[in-house]
Amino acid sequence: MTERARTIVYMDEARERRAAAEAPPRKAKPRAKGERTRLSPEDVEIVLTLNKLKSELSALHNRYDQTTDPLLIDSLIYETKAVNMKYMFYLGLCKEKGIVSGG
């Protein structure tokens, strides 16, 4: 597991504001600076998948740099595009849910 995958995940301020706007007004206890908030298991799974896809993209780029056969290069290009689309999907989910990966 890479150092980046081990980083602790924090919630974004936008997620807190969105939740506060949807909830009825009440006096909330302000969070201390640097206080961590637990993520749901679904959010953790999204972040882990995002980190896995990032590692996979890196490995594909390394294989691309070392490949000389034109057919394999074409195959790696299509595979990289497919993994990149998955990565963008999960990145969009993270932004939508307000999940931020520290590091």
Task: Provide a descriptive summary of the structure in words.
The structure is a single chain. With 103 residues, the chain is mostly helical. The protein has one domain (3-23, 40-101). It has helices at residues 3-6, 13-22, 41-66, 70-97; strands spanning 9-11, 99-101. Strands 1-2 form a two-stranded antiparallel sheet. α3 (41-66) runs antiparallel to α4. It is elongated and about 60 Å long. Mean pLDDT is 76; it is low at 1-12 and 27-31.
Distance between the termini: 15 Å
Low-pLDDT ranges? 1-12, 27-31
Radius of gyration: 18 Å
* Average predicted local confidence, pLDDT: 76
Tally of helical runs: 4
Shape: elongated
Report the sheet-strand fraction: 5-15%
What share of residues is helical? 55-70%
Strand runs, count: 2
How many domain regions? 1
**Lateral strand order in the biggest sheet:** 1-2
SSE ordering: HEHHHE
* SS-based class: mainly alpha
Largest sheet: 2 strands, antiparallel
Main traits of this protein?
two-stranded antiparallel sheet, mainly alpha, 4 helices, elongated, 103 residues, disordered N terminus
Summarize this entry quickly.
66% of the residues lie in helices and 6% in strands. The protein is mainly alpha-helical and 103 residues long. The protein has one domain.
